[in-house]
Amino acid sequence: METKKFHFTLQPAQAIVEYDNDGAFKQLLSMMKRGERIDLKLFTSKDNHPSVWAESRTVAGFRFDVSSESFDSLMCYFRTGNYEAFEKSQSEPDELDEGTDFQLMIMKQFIEGGVLLQYVPQFREYADKVTASISFLKGKIIFRVNRTEELMDYLRENNQII
Question: I need a surface site. Which of 58, 83, 132, 146 has the fewest CB within 10 A?
């Protein structure tokens, strides 16, 4: 009886796929045109682009790398439901300086703009994280940042937490 050996090879060129940010833009615009409420989580991508993780009740989460213009027009949709500015905002994503925490940067901008965030109580939270959110007419931004003494002092100084 003849025995066969199993042989498998992976072609390295096939394993590398470039991210389709244009496809993500079109998907986000489609969600806006349907009037969906979109949940966003912010992060800095591995290649130092400001990015959002977008999802809704009908669409599973996906990454979209943003520019300043596309993020501003995304916020316009969240506040008003108007997507026309976003439709015109398609551009190359901005690049952040090495080590920039996009999520923390935007969180602090909201706080310094006088927005009171809603926080998950500390007794329900993991000891090393702070989770907060802001709700809008057409969506929500969810922040989950590393808890540091410096951050906790900042939040107390800005009357965000007790």
Answer: 58
The residues, ordered by sequence, that sit 6+ positions from 107 with a Cβ below 8 Å of its Cβ are 42, 117, 132, 143, 145
Positive or negative torsion for Cα 102, 104, 109, 113: positive
Task: Report the C-alpha gap between 8 and 75 in whole angstroms.
Answer: 48
Structure tokens at 1: 């009886």
pLDDT tens track of the chain, all 162 residues? 677 777 776 666 555 567 899 999 999 999 999 999 999 999 999 999 999 999 999 999 999 999 999 999 999 999 999 999 999 988 899 999 999 999 999 999 999 999 999 999 877 667 789 999 999 999 999 999 999 999 999 999 999 987
Joined together, the tokens standing for residue 23 give 């496809």
Handedness of CA 110, 112, 117, 121 (dihedral sign): positive
Bridge partners of residue 118, in order along the sequence:
133
Query: What is the residue type of 121?
Result: P
Q: Could you tell me which residues come within 8 angstroms of residue 158 by beta carbon, excluding any fewer than 6 positions away?
A: 111, 112
CB 24 within 8 Å of CB 40: no
